[in-house]
Amino acid sequence: MEQKQKFKRVKKVPHLYERRYQTASGEWRSKFYGIFTCKLKGKRRVEPLGGDLGAAKEALALLLAENIKGDGKDFDAEREPQKQGITFAEWARDYFKNKIDPEKHAGGVEREQRSFKTIEPYFGDRLLSDIKRSTIMEYRAKRLQQPIMRRGKPVMIDGESRTVSFPTVNRELAFLRYLLNMAADDGIIEAAPSVNLKTEKDRKRDRVASEQEYKSLLDNMPRPAQRALIALYETAMRANEVMRLPWSMVDEKAGFIRLPADYVKEKKKRTVPISPELRRVLDELKVEQKKVASISSRVFTRNGRPMTSIRTAFEMAKEKIGIEDLRLHDLRHTCITNWAAQGIPQQAIMAAAGHHSIQQSNAYVNMKDEHLRDAFKVSTPVIQGNALDVRRAVSY
Predict the structure, then answer these.
(1) DSSP assignment of 258-321
(2) Staple partner for 49: which of 32, 293, 366, 386, CB 3.0–4.6 Å?
(3) pTM of this prediction?
(4) Where residue 120 sits, what CATH number does that domain have?
């Protein structure tokens, strides 16, 4: 949920103010504003100047110069046509073309593009100024009742269609709110409607793939997709991190995949161990790629070309073997849970997974019966099916 702080004046620069804000992913960013009195109309102006301090200073100097020239500048004149005529679809396309934060990783942009594809039919033709809170709440209610579609067919569970999940709608509305806030900051609309996203704390997923489910998925996927799934299961990497992984981040000699801070969502470098199973996959890919005349620097390829997704292969395999309610991101939960069940120290798990806190790490550990059974197998005879002879076990 995006949070904002109040304007804070930048030291030694009159009329320049900074506002810190927290994105939906928890990162803190800055935006700069010029705040001054308009000479022509005598009213207070708040002009957005972007997120770069140097560029903001230059832009402010130009604004102040225009404000004192002659009778002053009418800052509203050039914006009135924009306020009346720009649609949400036009604003969103301009965002993807010109306004994406350069620090945002590719996975975040892909999620935004998926959200836009979903909300465009409902909001696309609406003027930004016509999008109200009631309109957004109506969208939320309708969206939560829609069935999940796969290849044109609704996903069925026990004879009933499965509806769109609460977190999915939350992400869509978070992106809508972000664009509306940006439009308000840029003076395109007077103010963004209030959109309070309901907390997802009570809706934490605890789904992990069992060993049998994992093996069944592998058995029903083509080899290129199998290799990527193995990477997800063995490394706790996100799907987009695996798909984009270059060989330069694979330190085979040391036995690690080294992910720099600017590559991952949490902006914290990660060092992920290469398991024996993953090493076999990497060796196979190297041999295969040597036979191809021209390939990219990517690790995971299909016939020499970089892979972009295994979502279709994953969904088809699930459908074929009857697995329900399992997502690609659940493989990250699965790997971290397996690490914990193996007794790997929590600090090591946090370093490999990129977690900033113990609480965040614990949220990814979802122990099931099979994990508990394996963990206690050696030390607890009852789990092995052997009764414990108390008389022989107790020493007096």
Answers:
(1) EE-GGGSTTSS-EEEE--HHHHHHHHHHHHHHHTSSS--SBSSEETTEE----HHHHHHHHHHH
(2) 32
(3) 0.62
(4) 1.10.150.130
